[in-house]
Amino acid sequence: MAFVTLNTSKLQENYCFLDKLFKENSIQWTVVSKLLCGNKLFLENLISLGIKSLCDSRVSNLKMIKKLDPNIETIYIKPPPKLSVSEIIKYADVSVNTELKTIDLLSREALKQDKKHKIIIMIEMGELREGVMREDFIDFYKKVFELPNIEVVGIGTNLTCLNGVLPNEDKLIQLSLYRQLIEAKFDKKIPLVSGGSSVTIPLLLHDILPGGVNHFRVGESLFMGTDVYNDTALEGLNTNVFKLYAEIIELIEKPMLPTGEMGTNVEGESHSLEVDQMGETSYRAIIDLGMLDVDSKHINPKDNSIDLVGASSDMLVVDLGDNKNNYKVGDLIEFTMDYMGVLRIMSSKYIEKRIVEPAAVKENCK
């Protein structure tokens, strides 16, 4: 068997660190919960920390959040698909948008459900993922302001996720100025400049974040403790909130090189043989974990004497060398994971999810 654990005490420490940081800088923030893939157990423990706003890119996950706590503000954080408009109005208090036709559909559906739907309009700032082009955004806002049951609550941008464009002072100053321009031209109040994410946190820590940015959407730094900007750990945060364990289901001393006519494996890859391993043997273990569950490039054994050899759909092979730690069939091997490793594991229905060290909720993170 294999299972992943969430340490809610360490998660709480991360949450309190970030919550204090944002409050000290008069910044609102929303937790990006998509890493949890709508898992009820993990969401319950996340919500118990006192979180008031969650965003996700799957309507089914927002539905679960609203089921657990109808009072939590929910944000749908990608441009809504036409086929999901009805459910987005039902389960998302806010959505991020870049298409007028979609916002018109949201408006019509909000009228039908007798709701006021809030939106954040995303602006293209160089990352080339979602975002209205800067030369079009004034006309875009003008048309949106004319739609009933739609309330524009913010202007935002996404950086780093696709092409790795980093946020900087200049880009975020521009974003803040666009908010001022819209407010002045249309005599409207735009409360949020949603220009922050995990990658923007170092700008805040180094006191170079433009003052106009007042909303962050944060997932990776909360759950993984990472400094996304510098691709390292963020001082003050735990990096081991999640752990993965997989059971050894076979352990036999075997040759280090395969024998026979070589073709391609299940992934269509062909392997060259290392001549210096000819005649050598080592202890190889098969563990109850496979490509259906995780990409082996995004996990690492905690025991650095273990080498990952390869994976097939339901099994992963590791090399234990001379097995100096005396592993046996039935033992568990512990793995650490990066963000994508956790995301793949969490999306696998075959991996059990467990809570360890439940947090004693500290009101206001005191």
TrEMBL record:
GO cellular component, one term: cytosol
Coiled-coil residue spans: none
Keyword Membrane: no
Pfam families noted in UniProt: Ala_racemase_N
Gene Ontology MF terms in the entry: alanine racemase activity; pyridoxal phosphate binding
CDD domains reported for this sequence: PLPDE_III_AR_like_1 (cd06815)
Domain Alanine racemase N-terminal: 8-226
Cofactor: pyridoxal 5'-phosphate
Keywords: Isomerase, Pyridoxal phosphate
Keyword Cytoplasm attributed: no
Alphabetized PANTHER family for the sequence: ALANINE RACEMASE, LYSINE RACEMASE
Name this polypeptide is given: Putative amino acid racemase
